[in-house]
Amino acid sequence: MKLIIDTDPGQDDAIAILLALGSPEIELLGITTVAGNVPLALTSRNARMICELAGRPDIPVFAGADHPLVHTLVTAEHVHGKTGLDGPDLPEPTMPLQDQHAVDFIIETLRAEPEHSITLAPIGPLTNIALALRKAPDIAPRIKEIVLMGGAYFEVGNITPAAEFNIYVDPEAAHIVFTSGVPLVVLPLDVTHKALVTPERNAAFRALGTKVGQAVAQMTEFYERYDKDKYGSAGAPLHDPCTIAWMLDPALFSGRHINVEIECVSPLTRGMTVADWWGVTDRAPNTLFIRDIDADGFFALLTDRLARL
Ligand code: BDR
Ligand code: CA
């Protein structure tokens, strides 16, 4: 399957990219970067570092939006560290950043490839995707689906009591995406907080005995601190890799087709994903909203794919 990953690496973004690169079913056409966990210059650096770690400097990386549509950028160094990719000691990238803007790459690629052949996996704030949809509305019906990490239902917020980080950073962009009519698959915190890197699972990464296995273990050891201290989590939640795993093996997940709207107005609940799980409104479903995961199956898949790099 042809894929574009839109990302703000972020250790869990990095592992999502590695999972895609280790999976022969996926043809990664490019990586587009966005400001989120850290500012754009760092997310663009980190994405290239990960391609080089995987031995894939041929993957084109395009920088996109350096700020959200309306609000000031909110970052998450408190989770991911100063660089966004704290933990492993990786060399600075030498592969180039592409000259083309990420939004134009997304538009051109969708126009050039056959209809419904390209999946988008946004795993950061949705700014680039919204800008592309707004600049070129003709691309919407050409997208096969958008499989994104964002939002929450029962698990509610990790950046405010009401909102998940990716949606909170750019709710107006999320609103554009959720009302675009493009088929959406959403992997919210309800799922990703079940995909926890326990010590045994991390030992399995390290036991791969490769540079990739070692770096992944060091990344999760760094950013698990936040979730352990804050929520008493059993390990680092692998938010973003859930999107790629869903594409590879949707049978590992379960959810419902429901309506999801984004709160953009209230200062108290800005960025909340208002998910009509029980179908109490007559709003039409716009999302396959995932709530559950076979975590052991997910980690078996991930470890197997990382072993190929
Ligand atoms: C999301 O926010 C970021 O910190 C992670 O990379 C993930 O995409 C989780 O809320
Ligand atoms: Ca991310």
From TrEMBL:
<keyword id="KW-0378">Hydrolase</keyword>
<keyword id="KW-0326">Glycosidase</keyword>
<dbReference type="InterPro" id="IPR036452">
    <property type="entry name" value="Ribo_hydro-like"/>
</dbReference>
<dbReference type="GO" id="GO:0008477">
    <property type="term" value="F:purine nucleosidase activity"/>
</dbReference>
<dbReference type="InterPro" id="IPR001910">
    <property type="entry name" value="Inosine/uridine_hydrolase_dom"/>
</dbReference>
<dbReference type="GO" id="GO:0045437">
    <property type="term" value="F:uridine nucleosidase activity"/>
</dbReference>
<feature type="domain" description="Inosine/uridine-preferring nucleoside hydrolase">
    <location>
        <begin position="3"/>
        <end position="299"/>
    </location>
</feature>
<dbReference type="GO" id="GO:0006152">
    <property type="term" value="P:purine nucleoside catabolic process"/>
</dbReference>
<dbReference type="GO" id="GO:0005829">
    <property type="term" value="C:cytosol"/>
</dbReference>
<dbReference type="Pfam" id="PF01156">
    <property type="entry name" value="IU_nuc_hydro"/>
</dbReference>
<protein>
    <submittedName>
        <fullName>Nucleoside hydrolase</fullName>
    </submittedName>
</protein>
<dbReference type="InterPro" id="IPR023186">
    <property type="entry name" value="IUNH"/>
</dbReference>
<dbReference type="InterPro" id="IPR015910">
    <property type="entry name" value="I/U_nuclsd_hydro_CS"/>
</dbReference>
